[in-house]
Amino acid sequence: MVETSSILLIGCGNPSRSDDGLGHHVIDALEWALRPCPKVKLLKTLQLDVTLAEQLARQDLVVFVDAATTCPHPQPHSPSPLPFSPGGRGVGGRGGETRGEGGISVVTLSPETPPGLNLTSHLLTPTALVSLAHWLYGRSPKAVLVAIPAHDFSFGNELSVRAAASVPHAVQTILEFLAAFDPALVT
């Protein structure tokens, strides 16, 4: 059995492709907001990799943060704070998806059985990675994807104005989510 070690926040994307770097910008802002918090690990990556499965299997919660050209399952905005039920099935107790300010989506992920894995380097999804952790290590964390609307994927290190404006909303969404998961994390 793999030992549990808490919470992992993963910012995905390419910071050299403008808004695709949103996940990295949010993780940078969370690093400052959560300091010091030894229960939370922060990671920035260009893309998800199968080698992360073992690390996921050791977590209680994993939050993937990524840019999205279209956020999954559009729904009307929900009031803040997000209705997360730590004892229930993820966000809002629905096991589904919630919208926050700025069009940010929070989608609950669960392992696929059997895992429908596509293990190519450019197509590994958060759900596939959670499934892989479950399949290889017999354990997968609670997991959510925070999808942030992105508008510009051209070469460059700067976020578009609209994407930059969504970073504080994404940070607040994640902090509220973490506080609902474990109130001691966010003071």
Description:
- It is built from four helices and six strands, in the order βαβαβββαβα.
- The protein has 187 residues and is α/β, with parallel strands linked by helices.
- It has a six-stranded mixed sheet.
- Helix 1 packs across helix 4.
Number of domains: 1
What name is given to the CATH topology?
Rossmann fold
Secondary-structure class? alpha/beta
What value does the average pLDDT take?
Answer: 80
Sequence of strands across the biggest β-sheet = 2-1-3-6-5-4
Number of strands: 6
How many helical elements?
Answer: 4
Task: Describe the protein's topology.
Layout: E1 7-12, H1 22-33, E2 40-45, H2 53-57, E3 61-68, E4 97-99, E5 105-109, H3 126-137, E6 142-149, H4 161-181
Parallel strand pairs: 1-2, 1-3, 3-6
Antiparallel strand pairs: 4-5, 5-6
Helix pairs in contact: 1-4
What features would you highlight for this structure?
187 residues, 19% strand, 4 helices, disordered N terminus, Rossmann fold, alpha/beta
Would you summarize the structure shown here?
This protein has 187 residues and is of the alpha/beta class. The chain has helices at residues 22-33, 53-57, 126-137, 161-181, and strands spanning 7-12, 40-45, 61-68, 97-99, 105-109, 142-149.
